[in-house]
Q: What sequence folds into this?
């Protein structure tokens, strides 16, 4: 075998050295560069050789060795300790590594310094860490959302039951407000659930702005009423609202946005004042304006008002109100404009595209009262069980309940039931399995699955076992509607059986 001659080996390594994409420098013990590759020359020396320069100068423009020199850490620890630094000359991150070369007497003779651009891999790492965080957050939040749905089901259910028991206008109004707030809460929970499964929801509900604004004025009444009572100041809302102005939107989101705006206006009038809310239609747009006679905003505040966490209220503010407003208005294809003068007041104008025609929602009264059925409810949450039972007995149905799915199955085998409500997630058995067993006992039984999860159950999951899915929190109307649908299916069954 031929021995490779020294020169060709040297030129081979020089070739590799120069074609390395990372910057490589060899420095003596006094930090003077004694060799540098092409990449280092191009990046740090603008194409000129770096030999003779100090490494700390070419890397950081320092006049003496860097305080955070990775060589020292590497020598002290005995392993190569990389250092990542941001270089604002290039707007990039670089990772520096030092490999010490010791003399025969174990003293530092020289060292190799490599510098690698890690901007891209840092971005990737950050992205993957972010994705992990999002997915962990998604899991946690969907669990929290599920529990919240159970809580809201009881709150909403109880409120709706109480509304049926009273005709006192004051109580009715208060219960209405609790109901609306709980529904807003439910819609927030849905947002948390959508966090892990982004929303594909389209804004297709035609919303009457006048109704929404009047509701929000009522919802916020405790705040401005209390202010006037406690502090002896007067805040007077003046409404000039046109009838029949419709936009496509999400009523709960809109209530949320307008509530934030009104709260801010009230905060801005610590000595009282006037809040005027106006709507008007121009061509294809609807303008809504909220005008207060409060303290107003400086130029800087106007500029930052939509920034999350921007507040001028210290501990009393959280700075999230207006950023939420911004998001909601944007989602509604609206535009916001703020006019404000310190000491005089603020006007917030919002422009929405108007809905072409008003698609009135079907009113709940059109739902027929169903026949009376023999119903079985299975849910391991006792409060939900009771609330649903009270709903259904109120509608004159015969109701059996059980928190234990096994016992329930035994009951269903023995007695005749028309409809079974079952929770989706229960210890020991899933609602879907249970549904299958119920259908195998008697396929005529209408199975209604109640679920607190944001489920994407597809046809094949439900096929032949679940007739209806009722999402928590459910409303009285929704239950009545589902029962009337179940009644239709039962009637069809009976007709088939008798023919
Ligand atoms: P927060 O109300 O918690 O401070 P917001 O996001 O709702 O947070 O509002 C941010 C800031 O915008 C407020 O701190 C306030 O300085 C300013 N701001 C909003 N609305 C008004 C208004 N109507 N009048 C005066 N300042 C306002
Ligand atoms: Mg606010």
A:
């Amino acid at each position: 075998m031929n021995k490779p001659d020294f020169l060709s080996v040297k030129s081979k390594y020089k070739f590799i050295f120069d074609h390395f994409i990372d910057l490589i420098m060899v420095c003596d013990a006094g930090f003077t560069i004694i060799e540098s590759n092409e990449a280092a020359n191009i990046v740090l020396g603008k194409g000129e050789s770096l030999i003779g320069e100090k490494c700390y100068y070419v890397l950081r423009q320092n006049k003496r060795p860097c305080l955070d020199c990775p060589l020292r850490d590497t020598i002290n620890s005995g392993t190569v300790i990389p250092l990542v630094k941001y270089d604002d000359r290039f707007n990039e991150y670089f990772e520096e590594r030092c490999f010490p070369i010791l003399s025969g007497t174990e003293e530092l003779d020289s060292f190799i310094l490599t510098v690698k651009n890690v901007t891209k891999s840092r971005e990737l790492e950050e992205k993957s860490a972010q994705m992990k965080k999002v997915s962990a957050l998604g899991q946690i939040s969907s669990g929290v959302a599920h529990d919240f749905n159970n809580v809201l089901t009881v709150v909403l259910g109880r409120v709706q039951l109480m509304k049926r028991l009273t005709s006192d206008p004051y109580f009715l109004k208060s219960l209405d407000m609790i109901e609306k707030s709980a529904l807003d809460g439910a819609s927030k929970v849905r947002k948390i659930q959508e966090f892990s499964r982004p929303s594909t929801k389209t804004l297709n509900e035609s919303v009457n702005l006048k109704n929404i604004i009047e509701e929000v004025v009522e919802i916020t009444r405790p705040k401005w009423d209390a202010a006037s009572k406690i502090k002896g100041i007067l805040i007077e809302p003046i409404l000039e609202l046109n009838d029949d102005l419709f936009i496509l939107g999400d009523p709960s989101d809109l209530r949320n946005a307008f509530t934030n705006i009104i709260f801010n206006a009230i905060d801005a009038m610590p000595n009282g004042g006037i809040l005027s809310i106006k709507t008007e239609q121009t061509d294809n747009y609807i303008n809504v304006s909220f005008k207060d006679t409060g303290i107003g905003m400086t130029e800087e505040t106007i500029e930052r008002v939509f920034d999350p966490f921007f507040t001028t209220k210290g501990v009393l503010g959280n700075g999230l109100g207006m950023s939420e407003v911004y998001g909601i208005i944007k989602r509604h294809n609206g535009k916001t404009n703020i006019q404000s003068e310190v000491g005089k007041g603020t006007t917030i104008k919002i422009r929405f595209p108007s809905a072409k025609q008003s698609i009135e929602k079907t009113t709940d009264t059109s739902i027929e009262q169903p026949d009376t059925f023999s119903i079985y409810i299975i849910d391991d949450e006792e409060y939900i069980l009771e609330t649903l039972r009270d709903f259904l007995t109120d509608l004159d149905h015969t109701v059996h309940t059980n928190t234990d799915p096994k016992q329930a199955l035994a009951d269903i085998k023995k007695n005749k039931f028309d409809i079974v409500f079952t929770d989706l997630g229960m210890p020991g058995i899933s609602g879907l399995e249970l549904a299958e067993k119920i259908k195998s006992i008697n396929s005529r039984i209408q199975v209604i699955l109640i679920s607190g999860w944001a489920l994407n159950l597809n046809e094949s999951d439900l096929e032949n076992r679940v007739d209806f899915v009722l999402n928590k929190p459910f409303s009285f109307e929704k239950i009545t509607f589902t029962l009337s649908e179940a009644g239709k299916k039962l009637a069809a069954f009976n007709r088939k059986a008798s023919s």
Observations:
- The domain at 374-498 is CATH 3.40.50.2300 (Rossmann fold).
- The radius of gyration is 35 Å.
- The chain has 15 helices and 19 strands.
